[in-house]
Amino acid sequence: MELTGAQILLESLKQEGVKHIFGFPGGAVIDIYDELPKSSIQHFLVRHEQGAVHAADGYARSTGKVGGCLVTSGPGATNTVTGIATAYMDSIPVVIFTGQVPTALIGNDAFQEVDIVGITRPCTKHNYLIKDVRELAHSIKEAFYIASTGRPGPVLVDLPKDVMQARTEFEYPKTISLRSYNPNYTPNRKQVKKAANLLAKAERPLIYSGGGVISSEAGEILTRLARRFSLPVTSTMMGLGAFPGNDPLWLGMLGMHGTYAANMAVNNADVLLSVGARFDDRVTGKVNTFAPRAKIIHIDIDPTSIRKNVNVHIPIVSDCLNALKTLDEEMGEINAVQWEEKHSQWVKTVKGWCQEQPLRYETGQSGKVKPQYVMEKIYELTKGEAIITTEVGQNQMWAAQFYKYHKPRTWISSGGLGTMGYGFPAAIGAQVANPGKLVIDVAGDGSIQMNIQEMATAVCYNLPVKIIILNNSYLGMVRQWQELFYNKNYCAPCLDTAPDFVKLAEAYGAEGYLVEKTEDVVPVLNKVFASPRTCIVDIRVEPEENVYPMVPAGASLTEMLLV
Amino acid sequence: MRHVLSVLVENEPGVLSRVAGLFSGRGFNIDTLNVGPTLEKGVSLMTISTHGDEQIIEQIIKQLRKLITVIKVVDLSDTKAGEREMVLIKVHASENSRAEILRIVDIFRCKVVDVSTDELTLEVTGDQGKINAIVNMLQRFGIKEFARTGTVAMKRSMQF
Ligand SMILES: Cc1ncc(C[n+]2csc(CCOP(=O)(O)OP(=O)(O)O)c2C)c(N)n1
Ligand SMILES: [Mg+2]
Description:
Strand content of chain B: 35-45%
Bound molecules: thiamine diphosphate, magnesium ion
Shape of chain A: globular
Oligomer: heterodimer
Structural class of chain A: alpha/beta
Radius of gyration of chain B: 18 Å
Radius of gyration of chain A: 24 Å
């Protein structure tokens, strides 16, 4: 039977198992919206296209499935760019469908025409402009395949209006093979053997894990490996949740706002097992003093990650899951070593660092609520079972430090791009994908205003997302840098004309709460966590609280500023 | 170090832009770039000459391979490769200098492809060294126009 392009699109999405998409209509995609009610796919109308991509991204991060979104041409398409770049930097599988002017008008500066394929070339894994309806089904299949395999990432498909109206016979391809794209999932055994031998000889081994462990579902095997061979674990911010945050071998996150123990361990380790992490500058600090005593094993599915920033001794190009499984096997082959005993001195040393300089904060004289306290209470009340999304800034760092993530995909935060305004729409996506779960956006008073319009989306679809604003009346992270490195020249970070967030919540039909006293934190949190509605909690926290430890930009990891 | 990369790509709209964007976006250098169709329909060959230290060249090759539309990347500096470039040079040729220019043409085994009363247009083919040499030789007569194709290269059949 012949179908129109619009019908083919929706039918293909169904074939890909897509149940929900986030979108916003316009002239170029009206043919698709015309068909949408007849399809089984549930559409969530956002209030800004950036929100649609972040929501699809939060959906993907919380489930591992591909997130989908649909927007119109021109401004609809350009509004997605920040969302796409956010997903690209963190390797998140999202497919973005953009409307385009009819093929005959492309290149003519037609109304709402923009070269979105050109604009997003550097921030997508791949993208397509569909010029012929006969290519449509195949390209959609490719888009989903590319987005979700290898190192995942966003793929954009640009759909001219006439292609959506044209008809052709529909058949969805069952399989796909691309001669120019064959990600390597299985490790070279020889390399893994070498790695196992190196690890077995190590006296001060350390695992440094990253987002790749989450995306390849390797958390469980990582945990098994670490416990079996008594290897202390640190991770990047992207890797939080892969290894249980309450395990004795857990040292906390490393890097700029990493724990003292994690950064000291990196500095002293003799073998560093890096899995699914990419030696980002926020992690390494001054790169030539990073892990100065260590031989480095680097497992990554993306060959470009290897030897990009640091030299490694044993590179292993592979999916983290397969590589760790093989490593576990190979380590098991090594003759009866009492691993716990062998590493006991080292484990004692790193635990010593944990005790010497734990994450902590001064319980101040001012009587103001401490933001770290709020995170500790959120952890206690949720027993670490919530999905936490974050905005960007100090709020994000406190959320990373003072809540213990037990499971993969419960920590959702913009790492690579650091996108303010990410957390709330991402929480919406996570809530759509996990209807029964408690989803909390830990927000700053600045960031939350960047996508606050999505309140209407959350309320409209009865999504009981909880926004906890750690309100310091500042662009706090900017202020912290100005305080520490720019002689307190507080130019621009002050947010003293913030809206009344309680009234704002109410104006959108949600619940709003103001918390000014420490003793009110727990009762109010209890109340909102039990509420079936969208809630904003505006918590007035210590305005000039800083995030510690802090490694100044460009300094070595051991040059930490402590509380 | 200078490297010549042979890059086989799917010939689809935007492929040049993907490759060029990769170089500009990541701060890699392109010294010459040449693209043309191959014998296989839908496949083009790009020859890119670039320079950088070993780690940069490794990144360039890996990043190129990562592009979905790139089928194959070969670093021809790894092998004994034959390398050629063609240049058209329009040189000022007065009555007095003409004979000498023609002698140079002879020595370098290039061709005269156009003549007028005061100009000669030469076609030169060779590797970089030869082209630089002839340019040096001709500069004093006055080079009026200059167009070069960029390097193309091929692995030699006999490797030793
Ligand atoms: C879209 C965007 N613009 C600017 C920045 C730079 N930036 C990083 S943190 C920050 C301050 C965020 O303020 P707020 O949301 O109140 O969080 P706080 O640090 O106070 O917790 C800014 C402006 C950014 N990360 N993203
Ligand atoms: Mg703030």
